[in-house]
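(Fold this chain)
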Amino acid sequence: MLFEVSQNELIEKTAQELKKVIHMPSWSPFVKTGVHKQRPPIDNDWWYVRAAAVLRKIYVLGPIGVSKLRTLYGGRKNRGVKPERFYRGSGSVIRKILQQLEEAKLIKQDVKGKHKGRVITPKGKSLLFSVAKSIKGAAPQKKPKPEKTEEKKTSETQAKPEKKVEEKPTPKTEEKKAEEKTPKKTEIKETKNKPKVEKKLENKEDTTKQDN
């Protein structure tokens, strides 16, 4: 259920719930969240938002400690002409948030195999799931689309007439041209062949006369 809702909404609503449990330090409006940042956060309630995000990360990745959380909330620093470089987030901010969440009994320290760090408690899990449930209940439900019946498809196929392919009649002008072209070729061949035959006959007559 936790991943079926928008994670941004989940963090925002969880931050509103955490206002009842934890408190912002006096120095929070003036501090940066890391070396890579140029200014403090614009949002006045950024402490609660970061605490809600850390609580969600512990639920997903726990057991997890300060070191890994610093890398998750780090970023690239703009160094002017030099190429950008990755810097980890502020350890003090994350450490104070973890201490406050632990005091509220939303997380606890635990060891699983080789890994040790903070793990979410049943109280923290119920908080996240209750917020996710409220978001899912408030979301408008999509109306199911009506299924198309097969009867309509069959009626449409029957109604459509089959297209008949009509043979185009050959135009008369083309027939006349074809008839005119064919005899001309034969006539030319006949005229060319006639003088050859006559010449052959004349040659034969001359040879017979000479023999006589």
In short: The chain has two domains: 7-138, 177-212. Residues 172-211 form the longest helix (40 residues).
